[in-house]
Design brief:
The complex is a heterodimer of chains A (380) and B (295).
Chain A (H helix, E strand, L loop, with lengths): L1 H21 L9 E8 L6 H20 L7 E8 L4 H13 L4 E4 L3 H6 L1 H7 L2 E4 L13 E3 L4 H16 L3 E4 L6 H17 L2 E5 L10 H8 L5 E4 L3 H13 L6 E3 L22 E3 L9 H14 L5 H19 L10 H7 L4 E4 L2 E5 L5 E2 L4 E5 L2 E4 L1
Helix pairs in contact in A: 2-11, 6-7, 11-12
Chain B lengths: L1 H31 L6 H18 L4 H24 L7 H23 L4 E2 L8 E4 L2 E4 H23 L1 H11 L1 H6 L4 H27 L1 E2 L3 H16 L4 H21 L8 H15 L14
Antiparallel strand pairs in B: 1-4, 2-3
Classes of the chains: A alpha/beta (380), B mainly alpha (295).
Chain lengths: 380, 295
Amino acid sequence: MKKTARFLSLMIATLMVVLSFAGCGAADNSNVFVLGISGPMTGTASTYGNAVVNGAQIAVDKINAAGGINGYKIKLIYQDDEATVDKAKTAYEKLMDNGMQVFIGCVTSDSSIACNDLIKADGILQITPSASAIEAAVNPNSFRVCFTDPLQGTKMAEYVYNTLGYRKAAACYNQDDSYSTGMYDAFKERFTELGGKIAVEAPFGKDTSDFNAQITKVASSGADFIYLPIYAEKAAQILITADSKGVKLPFVGGDGLDGIMNYLTGDLGKLAENLIFLTPFVSTDTDPKVQAFTNTFIEKYDMTPDQFAADAYDAVYLAKLAIEQAGITAPTAMDNAAVVAAMTQIELDGLTGKMTFDASGEPNKDAKVAKIINGEYVAQ
Amino acid sequence: MQMLISTLIDGLNLGSVYALVALGYSMVYGIAKMLNFAHGDVIMVGIYSIFVCLNMNSLPVPVTMLICVAVCAVLGFTVEKLAYKPLRGSPSLSVLITAIGVSYLLQNLALLFFKSERRFLQNFLQLGSIQIGSFELPVISLVIWGTTLVIMIVLNLLIKYTSMGRAMLAVSEDKGAAQLMGVNVNRTISITFVIGSALAGVAAILYAAKYQNVDPYTGSVFGIKAFAAAVFGGIGSIPGAMIGGLSLGLIEALTIGFLPESLSAVSDGIAYALLVLMLILKPSGLLGKKKVEKV
């Protein structure tokens, strides 16, 4: 009895191994350019991964309908990394096995960092749409579409000082979150460099549920505005607390505030009125490119596109431009080094702004600022 | 000066909510001699019931409040019946582990029904604020303080002057002897749970009115601090829970308000350090009675 069981399990194991190899049989990719995406398609961060795939798909469809790249169509493949570090490497390797030529990913920072060594060794062009940690694009063959966290802080400091004319800042940031501290440290440095003053810092932690003491501190500091380099969930709690204490200072923040209207529903929506935040993409932008993209996206996926979708769309176009610039005439003639080198020579007028790249891999582009007016995001 | 007063008010507000939750812990511990770690999660369920009534069905506010208290009381009763009663004779460690299990069960049920994202509630108690001198005192603060105080007094009277209260006292002192004297121990403990859970319902209403948000972990995060407050004040003592809650709230607000930024990371730590110090100096808590454990 015991022997049969052992024999059976061995059989099953063998069968599984055979089957998994059978699944790897690479398709014939000799007449398509293969773009691969790795990101979370399931799990808590799945909205980001799915937005990236959807946004990229729209770009691919559009390019293919217009004749592709030098007459060859683009094929988009993707893998779920569940935003976990160990799955990220497997997902990347699977994409490489399936003939990926340009990597659009990873979607999240930690996954992307985990793949750094593999990507460097393979030497293919990496364009991450949305991994914002500094370390996520340090390889010479890595580029990114989104701003890094510190760059967001720097850009916001300039906007607040130069355009809004505020001089005294109060800051509520999450000291347990590197996204928040990264943005805040850069903001503080640039804002004080410009001549502004940080009137008060009121940090909180990941478990903080009561923000009254922070708001009290901020209210008595004489600040012109409150800087919120945090995610929308905590920001919504802070707005409610500020309202209950009658604090009427203006709030400004980073792209983490995008989506705050999903939390502040109904009557609460008015609390977010006049909120200003930095975002690479505003779906209500009157730019015809943005309008066309937004309409297609809503038609196809029945939801409003966010910055992740827009970043991915731009990443696909960057890949196309780089391949063309490098003079790659056919998928079989792919030259990774030439395509990577071409990235610094191209310019894209994309959904997230006009951008060029230098060898660091960071985008040179202007920040877009959105303001919530009557519950709608309005590009400033 | 103004900032000091505002900070003190913040601390008293926060402390009153802690106190109310700590009352629930303390009462159940005092009488049933068990730590009901699911108490915070009953509050969480209560806040979700308010969310369902107000945001999804727009019921009138008084009805919503009644439903919230009823939901919590019924939930407390059910949990006691299903999870704790079968373990009446078991070692207290088994009951403690069961309570932690119930806490996780409630959190996961909330995750299942409401997802992990934080939900925000409409401002249903629009009470405004009154002007005192140069600063504003939100009326909700007065309501919270008043409610906590009234509940504490009523509980004290209930325990001292009703036969049910005396039965509770008897059970808390010696279950076996109480039973011999004709006290229905099981019913007394069940009633204690229902009262404790109804208190959780009141705490849920005040929490919802003040913070207007809830997620599946609201109860456990808040519950742990309230539990610390109950231990600080002397677990089992009702005025102790009140004093413990208020102290913890004040310490938290003052450390956030007046500690230099570089130290603010440890603001929670300071509250707990004081708790540890307290337990070293007076192991039974501020108002706890020293008891000789018979082995």
